[in-house]
Amino acid sequence: MSATDEMTLPRWSIWLPPVVLVILAVTWGRHLEGVLLVFEFAALVAAITVAVHHAEVVAHRVGEPYGTLILAIGVTVIEVGLIVTLMVSSPDKTAALARDTVFSAFMIAGNGVVGICLLVGALKHQVVSFRPEGVAGAVATLGAVATLSLVLPTFTTSSSGPTFSGAQLVFAGLASLVLYGTFVLVQTVRHREYFLPIDDAGTPDDPDDDHLLLPSNRTTWLSLVLLLAALVAVVGLAKTVSPAIEDGVRSIGAPETAVGVVIALLVLAPETVAAVRAALHNRIQTSLNLALGSALASIGLTIPVIALASIWLSGPLELGLGPKDIVLLALTLVISTLTTVMGRANVLQGAIHLVVFGAFIFLAVTP
Predict the structure, then answer these.
(1) Which of 19, 75, 149, 302 is buried most deeply by CB count within 10 Å?
(2) 345: helix, coil or strand?
(3) Where, by residue number, does the polypeptide cross the bilayer (predicted)?
């Protein structure tokens, strides 16, 4: 392939990440109102857009499933850093922050992203196909990690409340890390073919799509750096606008946990947009890799880091879910298992996941 056949990055995708980082630095720690708040939301949308663009460039160069893995882990690592920072700065107010954020990510990715991808894909292509062996493995790993980390603390008796004792927290962290590490090994090395798009899944509708051209190594590395910068901006800007979100939540009388849901929606926006774009192009395997990989990374990386950070945290760490959330988690795992059995789905499966996601959002606002 000649140099003229290589993908080139549009100029807006190069200068936009530094610009949104500057906006983040200028507005960090300030309470924004009026026009400034609208401007901040516009910067957040821009950061999400450019993050998706660079994620797709990197994904096209390294191939599946590495591309989706990079985006999922990138968002999760930055999200975990934000959680730990908030917990260290205000341990008395953030006892349940990790639990609420992780569970929100689980429900958003496992129902919201999966549901909308199956729905839009099936509406456009009638029936969408994926590899059940890969998706089923992701669902099984997700079920084990979520149950060990978020359900068991509600029923253990070594410590009061929905918490783990020190030894139990270490075990949960190690178990999460082992399961997630094994999943990544299977996904990228031993059984990579389980997570590759089906050969006849179709091609993008737009024949002029830039992603049909292969980026050079230099372009790929530049996109990777710009992707990480954009992800930092997404998470940081989401944190910056969180006071306005908190004010809005209080104004409608919703509980504080709804704030975590909104922030999780913003943080997961790059992955959601990328997954939906893949579904529209009939690459549903890529969409499911992104959705389930994000949920797995969120739990599998957050719990070990929180277990390590608990050495310095003075306040309690609530990980156990309440009865309502346990029911929603179990329902999600059951329907996810049934969705993956045949390796094919239509609008019905998409609608089911979206209704469960709607129930989660509704009950988060009106518990």
Answers:
(1) 149
(2) strand
(3) 12-29, 35-54, 66-89, 101-123, 135-155, 167-186, 221-238, 258-280, 292-314, 326-343, 350-366
Q: Is the pLDDT of residue 349 over 90?
A: yes
CA–CA distance, 178 with 139 (Å, rounded to integer): 16
Tokens of 306: 């929180």
Q: What are the CA-CA distances from residue 33 to residues 30, 40, 191, 245, 332 (Å)?
A: 10, 10, 51, 11, 38
DSSP state for residue 256 in the 8-state scheme: T
Dmax of the chain from CA atoms? 65
Closest CA to 16 of 223, 316, 253, 261: 223
Q: What tokens were used for 327?
A: 């029911």
Which positions ≥6 away from 134 have C-beta within 8 Å?
187, 191, 194, 195, 285, 289
Residue 345: closest CA among 87, 27, 128, 32 = 128
Number of domain units in the chain: 1
Instruction: Compute the CA torsion angle 252, 48, 210, 123 (nearest 10 deg).
Output: -20
Whether residue 19 has pLDDT greater than 80: yes
User: Residue 228 is part of a domain; what is its CATH number?
Assistant: 1.20.1420.30
User: How far is it, in rounded angstroms, from Cα 362 to Cα 269?
Assistant: 19
More reliable by pLDDT, 253 or 211: 253
Report pTM: 0.79
| Chain-centre distance for alpha carbon 174 | 21
Domain that includes residue 174, residue range: 3-365
**Digit-coded pLDDT (tens) for 50-91:** 887 787 788 777 776 777 777 777 777 767 766 776 666 666
